[in-house]
Amino acid sequence: MSSEPSSFEDEKPEDGLEEYIYKLAPKGSLTLFRLLKNEREELTEDEISEKLGISKNTVRKILYKLHDLNILVYRRMKEESTNWNTYYWKINWEGISLSLLNRKKEVLHKLRLRLAYEQANRVVYHCPKCGREYKFEEALANDFTCPICGVSLEYIDRSKEIAILEDYVRRLEEELADELKKIQSS
Question: What keywords would UniProt list here (predicted)?
Fold first, then answer.
């Protein structure tokens, strides 16, 4: 039994949720997630290992990471005869919603910080030779010449970037507000 089948290399996300899993979880996570989604029932790590043809250690690593991301949950049953615990895993659909919501909040926070920075540094000059950027005050102090290369600095208009960031922030704020309303009404 190979620890990582070549099918892990072929994992391609098919929607936003799978994209989220693909970016944050280890290789094989999409394959395991899809198995649980298609089975529509709880599976043990032994069953998952057998169905996917991968080692229990690899399965366990993926399960714990998906659990940390609030994508999977488990139910523990103690076997009377052996005194061992068996874990039954399934998709945590409610937890996924909250995880995605929290992730969107993090992204919104970072976008707001970036927007504030761009607005504060609206007037920027850059050197076409070395690519360094200078705030207006720095460019003025150096007579609009790059102190490293001696090349004349060029003005960069950040208005388009700022407008794009403002649009992203507005849309994400609206999306979050809608999702919060849905959660509160359910």
Answer: DNA-binding, Transcription, Transcription regulation
CA distance 27 to 13: 12
Grouping H, G, I as helix, E, B as strand and the rest as coil, residue 154 is strand
At 127 the three-state DSSP class reads coil
As beta bridge partners, residue 90 has: 73
Residue type at 110 in one-letter notation: K
Give me Rg for the CA atoms of the chain: 25
Question: Which tokens sit at 75?
Answer: 């139910």
Q: How many other C-beta atoms lie within 10 A of the C-beta of residue 165?
A: 19
Domains of the chain in start order, with CATH, are 6-91 (1.10.10.10), 100-185 (no CATH)
- Residue 169: C-alpha distances to residues 16, 20, 45, 157, 177 (Å): 19, 20, 41, 20, 12
- Helix, strand, coil percent content, the chain, rounded in steps of 5: 55, 15, 30
Gap between the terminal Cα atoms of the chain: 45
Q: 127-181, pLDDT tens digit by residue? A: 999 999 999 999 999 999 999 999 999 999 888 999 999 999 999 999 999 888 8
